[in-house]
Amino acid sequence: MMRVLGLVSFLAFLYLLLPVLVVVGSALGETSYLAFPPHGLTLRWFAVALADPRYAHAFLTSLVVAAASTLAALLLGLPAAYALARFDFPGRRFVETALMMPLILPALVLSIALTLLFSRSGFTAGTARLVVAHLVICTPYVVRVALPVLQRLDVALEEAAQNLGASPLAGFLLVTLPAIRPGAIAAATLAFIVSFDDIDLAIFLADPRAPTLPVVIYSAIQLGIDPGVAAISALLVLLAGAGMATYQILLWRRQAA
Amino acid sequence: MNEVELDGLTTRYPGGGTIGPVSLALRRGELLSLLGPSGCGKTTVLRMLAGFVPPTAGNIRLRGVDVTRERPHRRGVALVFQNFALFPHLTVFDNIAFGPRRHGVARAEVARRVERLIAQMRLEGFAERRPDALSGGQQQRVAIARALAIEPAIVLLDEPFSSLDAQLRESTRFELRALQQEIGFTAILVTHDQSEALSVSDRVAIMRAGRLEQIGTPHEVYHAPATEFVAGFVGRANKIPGGIVRPETIRIVAPGTAGALSGTVGTAAFLGAGSEIVLQTAGGQTLTVATDGQAPLRHPPGSTIWITWPPDAVIRFGDSP
């Protein structure tokens, strides 16, 4: 039984990892077209991708958009989750469901809806507009992750803070927020990834002069797949891997301390 | 001037049901227990004092100042929670320093105060630990230190021993009392455990269904209970015509003694230091006798025993207020 389960988990792992292997592998090929397994072995395409200012600019734009969207989603989502967890008000369940809506709605539908809305209201194209759009898809993730954490948090902790002289706001900042920190970090990570990975909204709403990285990669693929695209994708995978490794090391250090 | 005064304090729940009116006063340095069965409203009274439940009538005065409408963080009432509610992300030092810092106490004074409390609570060496690295008894001492750090007019203790295991509970009880007398803080302790209330309090207030039944010293509420409910809740009581009699005042006497009552032993339980014999009288009355540990050997179930009690052992109601 254990052996079967072990085999299943290995196959699942392989299945999940396969696309990453293909991307990294084909970025290492010498040919000017994508091939897997790669013919020959070179880092040339990484140099090409890194030298291309379009990728560098797009990467920065994506970082800025994702950081701003995450911050805004936390500022909106954490208080919303707090209100849902702590207070019983009329329509509470409706609000909770409504906050989950963007998760269910196809992103393409949302893109069209937001494009129409923005053009009618005269909110012109620009990075700020994309951030506002990403807020719609990031906030539900923050609420979804933070809500159960807040519901589990002992109300007595907040009461203790107030009892000792902290105003409700000070109590939230000094006790509630630190107590839910792991949940808040998870929520922020998820929101960041959702914004950074988004292409549907970005295609419609990004500033045409400053597209995000997924948009640039997408248009590069449309123009003709070259290993430069694979290289930039491989770099993103490496970046994500490095981020995860850093997080794990920090976690180990904390546990050791 | 009384340190704490509750005057007709009442709260009405939206769904019906009222707690109060409760009126009582505490002198400085006094420890009063609010004793009652669960659901009698004792915790609600505590939460009204702390400002978490708004009273619908009556008022609260602390050191002569009316704080009935004051918000929780401006009361100067310190609550020790049932589960202690220590801040898990802060060290013992920072937990204790939390209150004074919020009250704008100068940094040097905060450190002095925290160090003093750490010494008083015998928590030396634990200042940099987090709460989850402490034992239950230590956590409780941190919770009390944290409460005392704001130099409150009164400390409210909500079932402070219920989250400790049975062995620790008794020793901690006397430890808390010793600390309270040494430091001299005023306190209200909420409990449903009568032996806890009797053993640590200056006075005991017994609550039933939202109202106070009696306030008095442990001796008064035990030996002169105002109502049958108090008599039954504080210690055990045998109901007899005209009043109650405590199990330990009943004597087993020689068969046929003049004026004695005879009965058949139902159960005879050995309790270590003593024993408890439950008997059924000829009149159909059930009486519990608390007596020496050897008694079950002499009076096995089914045997007949003769009992008596001194006339002044009978507690009557109505004639004593």
Question: Mind sketching the topology for me?
Answer:
The complex is a heterodimer of chains A (257) and B (321).
Chain A: H1 2-27, H2 44-51, H3 53-86, H4 92-104, H5 107-121, H6 127-152, H7 155-163, H8 168-179, H9 181-197, H10 200-205, H11 213-223, H12 227-256
Helix pairs in contact in A: 1-12, 2-12, 3-6, 3-9, 3-11, 4-6, 6-9, 7-8
Chain B: E1 4-12, E2 18-26, E3 31-35, H1 42-50, E4 57-62, E5 65-66, E6 77-80, H2 92-102, H3 107-120, H4 136-148, E7 154-158, H5 166-183, E8 187-191, H6 194-200, E9 203-208, E10 211-216, H7 218-223, H8 228-233, E11 238-240, E12 243-245, E13 251-253, E14 261-270, E15 274-281, E16 286-292, H9 295-298, E17 304-308
Helix pairs in contact in B: 2-3, 2-4
Descriptive report:
The complex is a heterodimer of chains A (257) and B (321). The longest helix of chain A is centred in the N-terminal third of the chain and has 34 residues. The mean pLDDT of chain A is 88. In chain A, α1 crosses α12 and α7 crosses α8. Helix content of chain A is 81%, strand content 0%. With 257 residues, chain A is mainly α. With 321 residues, chain B is α+β, with helices and mostly antiparallel strands. Chain B has a 6-stranded mixed beta sheet with strand order 6-7-8-3-9-10, with helices on both faces. Chain B has a 5-stranded antiparallel beta sheet with strand order 13-17-14-15-16, with no helix packed on it. Chain B has a 4-stranded antiparallel beta sheet with strand order 2-1-4-5, with helices on one face. In chain B, α2 crosses α3 and α2 packs parallel to α4. Chain B starts with a strand and ends in a 13-residue tail after the last strand. Chains A and B meet through α7 and α8 of A and β6 and α2 of B.
